[in-house]
């Protein structure tokens, strides 16, 4: 797991985030959350999971966070991007850790979700910004 505190302070550890931070300070980012991340709160610690729960393990990160009584959020992909027509009819809001980091760090710098999502969400995910649709 990658723990991000105030976005640019990054640490890796063998210790559990549950032992390091108060529960109310932790936000577990999962594409299955109903809660949309609207802004980055510098007083929070954002957990980027290292699991891909797109197929067999759908909702795994959400279930893990709920079992640990953690706040959850998802990136606002649906709110700022549109599905693009593609031959595979493939659309996914599941991103790799580096893509999530790119989105969060760009948002932190620009305070713009469209700019942040453009930086981190590749067109191969089946989503584009509305102005990119021709």
TrEMBL record:
It is an enzyme of class 2 (transferase). Residues 1-128 form the SAM-dependent MTase TRM10-type domain. InterPro entries: MT_TRM10-typ (IPR028564), MT_TRM10-typ_sf (IPR038459), tRNA_m1G_MeTrfase_euk (IPR007356). Its EC number is 2.1.1.221. GO terms for molecular function: tRNA (guanosine(9)-N1)-methyltransferase activity; tRNA binding. GO terms for biological process: tRNA N1-guanine methylation. Gene3D superfamilies: 3.40.1280.30. It catalyses: guanosine(9) in tRNA + S-adenosyl-L-methionine = N(1)-methylguanosine(9) in tRNA + S-adenosyl-L-homocysteine + H(+). GO terms for cellular component: nucleoplasm. Keywords: Methyltransferase, S-adenosyl-L-methionine, Transferase. This is tRNA (guanine(9)-N(1))-methyltransferase. It comes from Himantopus himantopus (Black-winged stilt).
């Amino acid at each position: 797991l990658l723990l991000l505190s105030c976005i640019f302070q990054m640490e890796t550890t063998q210790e559990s985030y549950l032992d390091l931070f108060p529960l109310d300070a932790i936000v577990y980012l999962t594409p299955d959350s109903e809660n949309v991340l609207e802004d980055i709160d510098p007083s929070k610690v954002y957990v980027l999971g290292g699991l891909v729960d797109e197929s067999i393990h759908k909702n795994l990160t959400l279930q893990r966070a709920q079992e640990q009584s953690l706040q959850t959020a998802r990136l606002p992909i649906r709110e700022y991007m549109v599905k693009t027509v593609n031959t595979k009819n493939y659309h996914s809001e599941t991103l790799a850790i580096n893509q999530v980091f790119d989105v969060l760090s760009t948002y932190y710098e620009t305070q713009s979700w469209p700019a942040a999502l453009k930086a981190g969400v590749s067109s191969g995910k089946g989503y584009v910004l509305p102005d990119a649709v021709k």
